[in-house]
Amino acid sequence: MSIVPAANLLRTAVPQASSEEPERDVVPENPPTESWQRQLAAAIRDPAELRKRLGLPAIEAELTGSEGFPTLVPESFLRRMQPANPHDPLLLQVLTGPEESNSVAGFVADPVGDTAARKAPGMLQKYAGRALLVATGACAVHCRYCFRREYPYQNEPRRMDDWQPAIDALAEDSSITEVILSGGDPLMLTDIRLTELCQKLDAIPHIERIRFHTRLPIVLPSRVTDNFIRLLKELRAQPLVIVHANHGNEIADDCQQALQRIVRAGVPVLNQAVLLRNINNCADALEELCRRLTNIGVMPYYLHQLDRITGAAHFEVDVATGRRLITELAARLPGYAVPKFVQEIPGQPNKTSLF
Ligand SMILES: *Cc1c(COP(=O)(O)O)cnc(C)c1O
Ligand code: SF4
Fold first, then answer.
1. Which CATH number is 149's domain given?
2. What is the pTM of this model?
3. 204 C-alpha vs ligand 1 centroid, how far in Å?
4. Which of 69, 72, 112, 142 has most ligand 2 atoms within 8 Å of its beta carbon, as the pocket-test mutant?
5. Is residue 19 part of a domain?
6. Is 157 inside a domain boundary?
7. Structurally, how many domains does the chain consist of?
8. Cβ density class 70-95: b for 16+ within 10 Å, e for less
9. Ligand closest to CA 219
10. DSSP character for 309?
11. Domain limits for position 223
12. Atom 1, ligand 1: which residue's CA is nearest?
């Protein structure tokens, strides 16, 4: 294991705080002391480095994807990839390629209508009873198919004070009973910040549930700290944790342990996956994912039809194939282990069932 020089650690402890990508910045309030922060600081940010580490041949004129969405892969995720396999299903989720520059009709910057759903700084509402907070623009991994890869995070709250208008809007609207912390990834906030934000939400009497939409327990399991578990246990509102894994290989030992800690704290944990070409568009891969999840108490929730974000057309699988895969899964797995196949259609009152 390499030692990260202290100066380098401080500079990169909070990813995306680089000058190339200020819009995905988060405000660092502490020097990085936690192991997950050090691991993030050491994450791979260069596609050539990623190829090299996996023993894949270098390619000329590497596309860096630096147009606001550079490569980002933590070591803990890299370890689960098969060396020298250019088709590895985890690698394909994070490796930039020339296809990202293709302009394909129907693939746009805001495929799910986030702009129209913005009700206050950092707050989106599309569905009855639920509001979503864009807690930060930062993530621990950059998934090339991300539906928010073009989201204008620079306009959203950075400091706790910036959250007041959203908190006030939530406090004023008693029809909102659930708050979803999303992003980016809300677990990119330190435990101190996350606790502070959750306490403000928890103090609103009509908020019954607080949901954490996060990929960090999957890609950076050390983020599931004692303090995070304590935060979940101490909330008045019911917490739920919704993770995001697309392939069974993501559910490695360290990831299993992290998820089980949350499950054993008594918190419901659900998984969302995205149907992705060459990654999980076969029944065997989806079955294995669902089986591994349910074996540790994580319930498959949604299988999403790809949101048609610019640069992600090469990931799309047609809906008919998705339906066939769900039919196959239903024939192989217990009913509770089969995710709902859904699509987000702007303007609809809920995620639309495709099955
Ligand atoms: C997907 C989404 C939700 C959650 O929808 P569920 O079907 O309850 O999981 C809530 N708000 C927004 C803005 C969403 O995009
Ligand atoms: S973790 Fe989620 S928000 Fe972050 S890049 Fe991946 S899909 Fe997008």
1. 3.20.20.70
2. 0.91
3. 20
4. 142
5. no
6. yes
7. 1
8. bbbbbebbbebbeeeeeebbbbbbbb
9. 2
10. B
11. 114-353
12. 351
